[in-house]
Amino acid sequence: MRCLHSLLRPARLAVTACLAVALALIPSPVPAHAAEPAWGLVASSCTAPDIAANRAVGIGLVEVEAYWDRYLPGGPGAVNAAYVADLRARVTACLDNGIRVVLGPGTQYPPAWVRGLAGAGLVDQRGKNPTTGAIDTVFSAAVRGAQNDYLRRLVADLPSARLDGIRVGTSTAGEIGFPGPNEAGDGFLQSWWAYGADAQQGTGLAAGTPVTPMPGWIPGQRTWNGRTVTASMAQNWFLWYSRSLLFGIKGQVDALRAAGFSRPVHVPSPGKGVLPADLTTATAALLGGAGDRDGSLGRGLYYVDQFPALAGNVAGPLVVDLTGVDDATAVVARGLTPPQDRCASTDATASVAAGTPVQTWSNLRFARAQATRAGLAAVGENPGPPGAETGGTASSDPIAEQIRRSPAYARGCNLLAFFLAFEDVLDDPASGVTRQDYARAVTG
C-alpha cells in the first residue's frame, strides 16, 4: 500500500481519494478459528513459585515485562549484565516448563540518558511537555535509534526464537498512542503532541517519518499561511498526525525483523479510537475541540484507518492486542436495550456503515471490528482492578467480575488469546481472587 507514504508527504493536502484507495485495499478478514482462546496472564514474574502455580491451574501463556531503564541504565551499550541474565533465566524457565511467553520490552521505561537525547521531549501546541514522562519515540531520530538498538539487543540476548511474540507501543502504557487529555498538566484538556522541531521543521526527524503538512498550524486556527483552512485540510493534518504513530510502530517492527525476529509482533491498542462521525464533527470545527468523545483525537487513535495501514505496511505477522475486554464501556453497553457489548459476525461491515450506533458499542466490540476489517488477528486483555494504575476505573467491573465475564467476551470476539491483568493480583490475598477463580471462569 503506497498511500501510507504519499498521504503524508509534506506538500500534500488532498487526502480523500488516497484514503478511499487505502480502505479498498484491506486484506480479506481473518478466517474464524475454531480453537479455544489461549488463557494467559499479564506481567508474569516467571519465577519458580509462579510457574508452579500457573501450571497447576492450566495457565500456559504469559506476558513478561522487560525494563529498558534496567537493561541499559548507564548509556548506549552499557548493558546491566546481571539484569539481562536474570531476565533471560526467568523467560527460559517459563519456556522450559511449557508456558508460552510474549515479551513486553518495556520501552515505556526509558533510561535517564535517553531523556537527554535530541528531541526526546514531546511538545504540544502550547509548548508543554507531558507530566507523565512520555518521550518522543515517534518523531525523534535520536530516541528512535536508541530504542531500536535496545530492541535488537533483546532479540540477541533472549531466547527470542521461542517467544510467542514481542509487543511494541509508543505510550507510557506500552500501547499505541500519544499522551492523553490533560497530560500537559495545565488544565487544558486537548493537546496535540507534534510541535517539536523534528515534526514541525524536520530537524532531527526519524528517517522516513514525514514532517507536518502544515508547518506552524495549530488545530482550531481558521487560517494558515494566508489561506482559509478547510475541513479537508484539517482532516489531512489529523491523518498525518495519527499515521505518524504508525511510523513509530513500523520503526520498531523493522528493527525486530532486521535483528532476525520473525514471530508475531503485538500492538496493544486501547479503547475504540476516533469514530468516523467523530472525525467529521471534529474536522468541520477544524480540530478546535468538538467531536472529541473520549480523548482519542489528541491520542491520535483512529483504528478505522490505522489498522488497515498497519496491515499493509508492517512486515511479518502482526497481532493487535485489544486492551478493553470488560472495561467500563462494556458495563454501559451491556446495560442497554438491546445490549451492545457482544461482537457479532456482521460487525466489520456494520461498524463503518452510515447510521450504525457504534458510539453505543463497547470499546472491544468496535476495535475488534476494525481488526477484522484489516485482516488482523487479535488478542485481548482486561483493564485490571478499578483504581489501579491501569485502565481500571471506578466505573469498571470489580476484578472478580472481570474474571467471570472476560472469557465469554474473548470467545465471542474470536480472540486468539486472553491475558488477565495481572499475575500479582492473583498472588495477593487482599485482592480476593485466585488462579482457581480464573480457571473456573475459563472452564465455565
3D structure, described in words:
The relative contact order is 0.13. The protein is globular. By secondary structure, it is an alpha/beta fold. Mean pLDDT is 92; it is low at 1-31. The protein is built from 18 helices and 10 strands. Helix 7 runs parallel beside helix 9 (231-258), helix 9 runs parallel beside helix 12 and helix 16 (399-412) packs parallel to helix 18.
Main sheet: strands, sense, barrel = 8 strands, parallel, barrel
Q: How many separate helices?
A: 18
Shape: globular
Number of strands: 10
Rg on CA atoms, Å: 21 Å
Helix content: 25-40%
Provide mean pLDDT, rounded: 92
Order of helices and strands: HHEHEHHEHHEHEEHEHHHEHHHEHEHH
C-alpha termini separation: 43 Å
In terms of DSSP E residues, the strand content is: 5-15%
pLDDT below 50 for ≥5 consecutive residues: which ranges? 1-31
